[in-house]
Structures are given as structure tokens and as C-alpha cells.
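Researcher: Next sequence.
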Amino acid sequence: MTRFELRVPVDAPAARTWAALTDWERQGEWMLGTRVRVTAGDGASTGSELTAFTGIGPLGFTDTMRITAWEPPLRCAVDHTGRLVRGTGEFLVLPRGARSELVWAEDVALPLNLAFAPGVKLSLLRFARFAREYPA
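Model: Next structure:
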């Protein structure tokens, strides 16, 4: 398992940051090359399942996840349940007054870990812009 943790300041309050982060169907607007869909449950509760495809065209990989903690507007934790991506992930939204900070932490077994973190960092910078403009 490899652990990584990335942080990005967001010029939006915690509630808006949370809403933007957990709008799973729109995650592809800021996460590089990724499309997410809810495959079981409502996507907003423990036990819900998500499927993310990351790649270009048909080339890529699928990451399946089960939500193991749902604590709006502060914390969502997942278990990665797929064949390729295994481990846990956690998304924390830290209130900072009128602003917030997003923390993305993963403990995963994933081939090419070195290429994964830089892509997530760039995506989080894109997320900060997305959340700032997300409808209140």
C-alpha cells in the first residue's frame, strides 16, 4: 500500500465545497480523464457504490468504490473494491471561515503510483476553480 495526501485551498465555504465534491456525476469536469457514476444506493450515504472509469476512449481502468463513511459536509470515506485499485480513500473538507480546504488522502495498492499523485494534484487545482463557481 502507498499512502498519499494532497491538500488544496478552496475559495468557497465548506458546504459548497462538499456539494461540488460529492456531485459524482460532474466529477469528470475537474478530475482528469475520469467519469464517475453511482451504481448502488443514492451516492449520498454509507453503503452506496460508485464506479469511476479513468482513461482516454476505451483505454483505461475502472475503479469501484463503496462509501464507508458519510459525514456531510466534512468527510466521506471509501473502500476501493476493484481488481486493479485496492485500499481506502478519504475526502475531508476543512472549514476555513468563508473558505475551506480539501484534503484527499489515499492508502492504495495501484500500479504506477508515481504517475497517480501528480494527476490528482492537477485535478484538485481544477476542483478548486470548479467549487468556487459551483451553484450555492
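Model: The radius of gyration is 14 Å. The mean pLDDT is 92.
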